[in-house]
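Is it possible to get an amino acid sequence alongside its tokenized fold?
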Amino acid sequence: MRAGDTARLGVASGGDGVPAYWYQLGSGTAIDSGGTIFVHPTTTTSYVVRLDLCGASTFDTVKVWVYPDTPQVNGIALLNTEKLALYPNPAREVLTISGGHGCTFTLCNLMGQEVIRTPLTRPLQDVPLSGIPPGVYLAYITDGAGNRYVQLLMVNE
């Protein structure tokens, strides 16, 4: 989402009367209560919900990503993929990568073994797949800062 957009947190409907209290992560003051709240963060923000049922409290955390902050998965920052494309998928002899100029392309099998690694030196670049056995692979595009895009790629005969 973009800064200031509205995000709905909680249950999809019927949240009135739910004994839930919402906080920004790190704050001890509730920002709202109920099963559903609407927030308008200007930066990536984590929210904590506390649900009180019969004297027992449970907690959960929700992170709302605000563009252009870069989301992370398992500590790996993800590339902005608006202009990045890998095609065709499934591929046969050649994979075309668009929008990866300045990054590195790596193809790994599902056991994590690197099959191909090549720098992407052009805005539109073909990567030959000759000699790659048919199967499912993980295609990684990584920039110089370690931000990464991952996509499953099927290679056919």
In short: The chain has a mean pLDDT of 84. The chain has two domains: 7-64, 72-155. The two ends are 40 Å apart (CA to CA).
